[in-house]
Amino acid sequence: MTDSLLSVRDFSVVYDVDPPVRAVKDVTLDIKRGEIVGLAGESGCGKTTLAYGVQRLLRPPAVITGGDVVFHDKSGDDVDINSLGVEEMRRFRWDKVSMVFQGAMNALNPVATIGSQLEDVFLVHRPEMSRVERRNAVVELLEIVKVGGQRLRSYPHELSGGMRQRVMIAMALALRPQLMVMDEPTTALDVLVQREILRQISQLRHEFGFSVIFITHDLPLLLEISDRIAIMREGEIVELAPAERIWNDPQHEYTRKLLASFPRLTGEKGVVAR
Ligand SMILES: Nc1ncnc2c1ncn2[C@@H]1O[C@H](COP(=O)(O)OP(=O)(O)OP(=O)(O)O)[C@@H](O)[C@H]1O
């Protein structure tokens, strides 16, 4: 088994509008097993396009104009993501890769209990599971994300925003994917809740061994949670280095500019124990 989980080579995406927008330009990036890679950069630099593009989640006018994305499955198989059919890709997305979107907590169905919504994931993707097995798996998930199994019968409006976002993380974790893509997963939450959830994501990846691609505008937050950070600018990765290096010894002029734009960075140590 290789150390690498996802290999992205010379990946490019263009939005075919007039004039065309080259949103991602020849990006090369390796995600290792169990690591958290942060994607940072100003709004519009291509973070979301890159993270969605490698999962083939983009819709027209987006066009992938070049590059390879290979997923090194823990079974030992190498999966060329570009070659998967629609149905294979759908299964792949839940089983191997899952996503937590910004504001995902508002995507919960308001008239169904969170237990039944979590159960649906198993109903669809693990049809061989019995009712009892499904129920047990849901309770376990709610315990893992510290919402508590007894919340099974709660409706979304009975939970705080932070709790609902944890439910979404539980859902993303349900099939034990090897990669989780998180797009501003805590942006809508207050700072303390954010920190708690980040700490938990960090612990869970140690426990379950998944890798994370974490997207946010919030560079100080990324410095705390990420093992490595990719700094993007105008569709390119201008610097990719361990979080400590980005913080202590940024090599690229643009990285220094970006760091300087966050007055919160006072040199204190972060609270998320990686
Ligand atoms: N549907 C679209 N049609 C045309 N251009 C688009 C489309 N979606 C995104 N773009 C352009 O592609 C570039 C990259 O956008 P993208 O959303 O990937 O950046 P981002 O870094 O994720 O920004 P944000 O942090 O604001 O989400 C931007 O110039 C954006 O205007």
Can you put this structure into words, describing what you see?
With 274 residues, the chain is α/β, with parallel strands linked by helices. The protein has a domain at 104-175. Helices cover 35% and strands 26% of the residues. The protein has 9 helices and 10 strands. The strands form 2 sheets. A 6-stranded mixed sheet has the order 6-7-8-3-9-10, sandwiched between helices. Strands 2-1-4-5 form a 4-stranded antiparallel sheet, covered by helices on one side. A hairpin with a 5-residue loop joins strand 1 and strand 2. Helix 3 packs across helix 4 (131-144). It is globular and about 55 Å long. 35% of the residues are buried. The mean pLDDT is 91. The structure holds adenosine-5'-triphosphate. Residues 15, 17, 21, 23, 41, 43-49, 61, 217 line the site of adenosine-5'-triphosphate (ATP). InterPro entries: AAA+_ATPase, ABC_Ni/Peptide_Import, ABC_transporter-like_ATP-bd, ABC_transporter-like_CS, Oligopep_ABC_C, P-loop_NTPase. It is a peripheral membrane protein. Belongs to the ABC transporter superfamily. This is ABC transporter domain-containing protein. It is found in: Cell membrane.
